Amino acid sequence: QVQLVESGGGLVQPGGSLRLSCAASGSIFAINVMGWFRQVPGKQRELVATITSVGDTNYADSVKGRFTISRDNAKKTVYLQMNSLKAEDTAVYYCNAEIISGSPVYGVPYWGKGTLVTVSS
Fold it and tell me: CB–CB of 36/78 below 8 Å?
């Protein structure tokens, strides 16, 4: 019964900032890579940023220099700090994590239900 719960979404003006959080809970032995994806109605889901268990990060070109992904392994939580937001950042943001629960021995991907971020004046 592993689950991911996102929080922090909402309405913000262009140029503003927002921080998303995603906490994992349940029977967890370890969490490998964690990341954030986003999706606009009628469009395919796209990767925003990822972070490994040791802190290596990867960002989509569209958010480089504006977004920062981080994680707190003790809290089993991943964050996405979004600065200089643009209208085109508007989307439902989904948390993703590869989790090892002990059985099976390899990581299994889990998804949060999503949180809506709206950037508008």
Answer: yes
Q: What is the largest CA-CA distance in the chain?
A: 48
Phi, psi of 34 (to 5 degrees): -130, 155
Q: Are 16 and 9 in contact (CB under 8 A)?
A: no
Beta-carbon neighbour count of residue 67 at 10 Å?
A: 22
At residue 49, the 3 state secondary structure works out as: strand
Contact 2, 24 (CB under 8 A): yes
- The per-residue pLDDT string of the chain (121 residues; one tens digit each, 9 = 90 and over) reads 899 999 999 999 999 999 999 999 999 999 999 999 999 999 999 999 999 999 999 999 999 999 999 999 999 999 999 999 999 999 999 999 999 997 778 899 999 999 999 999 9
What type of residue is 106?
Y
